[in-house]
């Protein structure tokens, strides 16, 4: 909450100065919904993690190992087993990193980190007005007609965008970089998807925060990118859908908007060879200032430090400009592998969740009879399941096995398999309303919590099936048949098992 307070003050103070200030906008901490109501989280959609708070170890409460954190879902207050200790409510509690505004040269206003930020840390939520895609398009055109050059509309999902032009959090000031230190991530918060800015690497205090607008951005005018990265793609959001639909160019003396030979991309793969256009904004540090002192006073705009520098507030202490110092940001091979594998893992995870969420996947899951499919008993491909699998006659197998432990093992595995199947069946009954709702309204989806339970139950069932089949195969191979073995007591059974087990 400290960060939030600081940001509120910063914004108010900025706007209260006589000097240059960003064009007016309303600072908000929650998305505002214009075309629909804020969704209410249904009880059955609430994801409850299994974390247990240990007072001797404060880190025990909903950290990296929390099931909800793993699926990018915030815990729901009142339901989390860690209660008030839960650390997985960062969007809800506005647990932002300290940051402050500064005026860039050539890229309007930007946002600086006001503290050392750790890799992976939640920096701030991108808040604004949630509008439909159609409205986003209309607004974008209207802004352009009104002469607004800075664009603040980003994608939320296939149907909705967030517009932070009139109302937004300080995240609206984060500029684009083709070699960013932050990224956007979508989180499920109380049933709504929200967009957060997260640090991709450790970010020292006083560094400009930036993320890659590509694919996220519903741009306004086509803007020449001045991030200065060697891998710069030259135009802001050049790969975004909005960019490809843009039909206008700014025609004035501003270098950023005079664009020739604008490239269009169909996809990431089409990206042309990057060129550096050496358009780096030179940063001239404010000489003879004590950085420590500046940092302490960053939210105190009445301090002598700021009044000296008015009217333009430019305080990029230790500011690493958008020009990237290759040596500083050089990643080791290990880092690269880690980054790639993290991205791949997360892509795989998302794909799995998406599959579970999609109607297709939900319909197809049930290859065995369920309460739903009792009458038809067909899988999604339309084939009758009867005959698809060879039935195992457990009773017959057990009658033939001479050793009681072998029989018991098979029967126990069969029981576990039955329980896992029943659990999946009952989950399917619970999931059915969500699927039906999903079919009615494609903005809605099967919640992550349900998808997650679904994956868990499916995995349990698969494991139980595997164990069952393994127990049968193993015992058929190593256990003597009733007819082969003398009918003896259990002690003798054990001896025979050992002998035959070789
Ligand atoms: C979300 S706003 C960022 C804040 C903005 N600089 C401001 O002053 O309010 C996006 C706009 O900032 C400018 N911008 C952001 N990153 C830029 C970059 N790398 N190069 C040039 N302009 C940039 C563009 O005008 C863009 O439409």
From TrEMBL:
**What does the entry give for GO biological process?**
methylation
Q: What is its main location?
A: nucleus
**Residue ranges constituting the AWS domain according to the UniProt record:** 44-95
- Domain named SET: which ranges? 92-214
Q: Does the keyword Hydrolase apply?
A: no
Q: Where is this region: Disordered?
A: 1-26, 365-385
Domain Post-SET, residue spans: 221-237
Keyword Transferase assigned to the entry: answer is: yes
User: Which cellular compartments is it found in?
Assistant: Chromosome; Nucleus
Q: Name one GO cellular component term.
A: nucleus
One function term, GO molecular function aspect: histone methyltransferase activity
Keyword tags: Chromosome, Methyltransferase, Nucleus, S-adenosyl-L-methionine, Transferase
Compositional bias segments (type: Polar residues): 367-379
Q: Which PANTHER family match?
A: SET DOMAIN PROTEINS
Q: What is this protein called?
A: Histone-lysine N-methyltransferase ASHH1
| Species in which this protein is naturally found | Zingiber officinale (Ginger)
């Amino acid at each position: 909450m400290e960060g939030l307070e600081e940001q509120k003050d910063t914004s108010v103070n900025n706007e209260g100065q006589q000097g240059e200030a960003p064009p007016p906008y309303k600072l908000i901490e929650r998305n505002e919904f214009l075309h629909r109501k804020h969704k209410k989280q249904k009880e059955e959609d609430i994801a409850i993690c299994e974390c247990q708070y240990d007072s001797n170890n404060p880190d025990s409460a909903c950290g990296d190992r929390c099931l909800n954190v793993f699926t990018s879902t915030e815990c729901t207050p009142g339901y989390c087993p860690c209660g008030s200790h839960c650390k997985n409510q960062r969007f809800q509690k506005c647990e932002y990193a300290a940051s402050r505004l500064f005026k860039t040269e050539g890229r309007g206003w930007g946002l600086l980190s006001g503290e050392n930020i750790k890799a992976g840390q939640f920096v701030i939520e991108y808040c604004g007005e949630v509008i439909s895609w159609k409205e986003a398009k209309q607004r974008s055109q209207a802004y352009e007609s009104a002469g607004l050059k800075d664009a603040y509309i980003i994608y939320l999902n296939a149907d909705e965008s967030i517009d932070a032009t009139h109302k937004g959090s300080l995240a609206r000031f984060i500029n684009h970089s083709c070699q960013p230190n932050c990224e956007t991530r979508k989180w499920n918060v109380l049933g709504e998807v929200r967009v957060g800015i997260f640090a991709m690497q450790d970010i020292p205090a006083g560094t400009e925060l930036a993320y890659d607008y590509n694919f996220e951005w519903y741009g306004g005018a086509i803007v020449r990118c001045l991030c200065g990265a060697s891998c710069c793609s030259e135009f802001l959001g050049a790969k975004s859908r909005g960019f490809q639909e843009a039909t206008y160019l700014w025609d004035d003396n501003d270098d950023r908007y005079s664009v020739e030979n604008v490239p269009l991309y169909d996809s990431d793969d089409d990206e042309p060879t990057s060129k550096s256009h050496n358009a780096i904004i030179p940063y001239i540090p404010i000489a003879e200032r004590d950085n420590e002192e500046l940092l302490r006073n960053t939210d105190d705009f009445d301090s002598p430090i700021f009044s000296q520098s008015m009217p333009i507030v430019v305080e990029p202490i230790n500011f690493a400009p958008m020009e990237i110092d290759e040596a500083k940001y050089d990643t080791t091979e290990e880092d690269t592998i880690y980054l790639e594998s993290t991205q791949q893992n997360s892509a795989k995870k998302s794909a799995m969740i998406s599959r579970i969420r999609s109607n297709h996947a939900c319909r197809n899951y049930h290859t065995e009879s369920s309460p739903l499919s009792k009458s038809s008993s067909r899988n999604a491909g339309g084939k009758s399941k009867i005959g698809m699998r060879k039935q195992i006659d457990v009773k017959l197998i057990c009658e033939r096995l001479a050793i009681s432990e072998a029989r018991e093992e098979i029967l126990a595995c069969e029981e576990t398999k039955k329980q896992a199947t029943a659990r999946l069946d009952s989950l399917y009954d619970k999931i059915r309303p969500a699927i039906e709702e999903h079919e009615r309204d494609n903005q809605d989806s099967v919640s992550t919590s349900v998808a997650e339970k679904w994956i868990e139950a499916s995995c349990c069932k698969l494991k139980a099936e595997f164990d069952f089949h393994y127990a049968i195969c193993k015992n058929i191979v190593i256990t003597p048949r009733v007819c082969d073995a003398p009918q003896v007591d259990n002690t003798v059974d054990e001896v025979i098992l050992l002998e035959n087990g070789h």
